[in-house]
Amino acid sequence: MRVVAKICGLSTPETVDAAVAGGARWVGFVTYPRSPRHISTDLLRTLGARVPGSVGRVGLFVDPDDALLDERLAAGTIDMLQLHGSETPARVAELKVRTGKPVMKVIKVATSEDAERGIAAYASVADRLMFEPAEGILPGGNGKAFDWTILRGLTIPLPWLLAGGLTPDNVAEAVRVAGAAAVDVSSGVESSRGVKSIELIRAFLDRVKAL
Fold first, then answer.
1. Rounded to an integer, what distance in angstroms lies between the CA atom of residue 48 and that of residue 19?
2. Could you give the number of structural domains in the chain?
3. CATH (domain of 129)
């Protein structure tokens, strides 16, 4: 099984270039002012323009209103929406139609029931799912993991990503335990909060390529 990776929360040309050169399948840009990884629309335009067509550009949103989505999408550098808030299935379906973009819905997981409820609610309206820990102050980038065995044996009818607390040192074990074919990392490739490390990005992607 070939495993692919998304590097999220990028905010500099150098780290975007490192993610692309290292073989990331997706790069993620954060739209959430409370996050240390939040970037402006102008910077989104600049960074997204560096990304080749072979790499997907993902915009992370938290319960976005239509005006915010319009502003960000007007940059022309978002290929997929990642919804990290309390968006309902109806809102996910609406945004797909309104924007014409595929949607990845994040499912917050503490128990197997959380995962099962999320799958049941969003599998018919989203294009991808992401499973991350329910614990954490911010939507993503909290450096915390959940019990990966929760996902083993579940029927997940969409492509999905494993997120939360992944690092170059544990990604191989996480993939083995959860059975993930795709992984997402943010804080696990940072030298300090919100500051990406080129060396850690390279190390993470090298570990993923070796799986």
1. 12
2. 1
3. 3.20.20.70
